Amino acid sequence: MAKLDRTDLLILKSLQKNSKFNITELCEEVNMSKTPVYERIKRLEEDGFIKQYVALVDHKKVGLPLVIFCNVSLNVHNAEHIERFTNEILKLDEVTECYSLGGVFDFLLKFVLEDLDAYNKFVFEKLTRIQDIVKMQSSIVLQEIKHTTQLNLKLPEKS
């Protein structure tokens, strides 16, 4: 993995705040001209530090106010069953995040839906039809306290 210097980290921090950055402001912040900043951004993209650029959409404003986290356990824990489960989850547009866990449950899912009727339909028409699920436990989000995609990148001291 490539080593990131202070300038790379400053660029990443700025892009995390707003990927529709103003190049002039970014150049001032890192004290470089446009060409080297563009080259660094291109390298950060090519090296996989920047995976993609996205718009964070307000789920409530687009009619999807219900956020649910669901813990899932499988009854079989071999590669074939886990791969089958993950492939099925990848097909579900309602699932916005999925994590493999260590501990009591095997997976944590996050889905965003219209309402409780949509949740009920999603669970019984899609989720429970996935083979090998033995246990599910859902939690409904009452209030979103913090939601960010920004990583807490530590900058090295200036030299």
TrEMBL record:
Domain of life from the UniProt record: Bacteria
Domain HTH asnC-type: 4-65
Gene Ontology molecular functions: sequence-specific DNA binding
Record keyword DNA-binding present: yes
Gene3D superfamilies (alphabetical): 3.30.70.920, Winged helix-like DNA-binding domain superfamily/Winged helix DNA-binding domain
Gene Ontology CC: one annotated term: cytosol
Any single GO BP term: regulation of DNA-templated transcription
CDD domains named in the record: HTH_ARSR (cd00090)
Keywords, alphabetical: DNA-binding, Transcription, Transcription regulation
Protein name (database record): Lrp/AsnC family transcriptional regulator
Organism from which the protein derives: Mucilaginibacter gilvus
Lineage of source species: Bacteria, Pseudomonadati, Bacteroidota, Sphingobacteriia, Sphingobacteriales
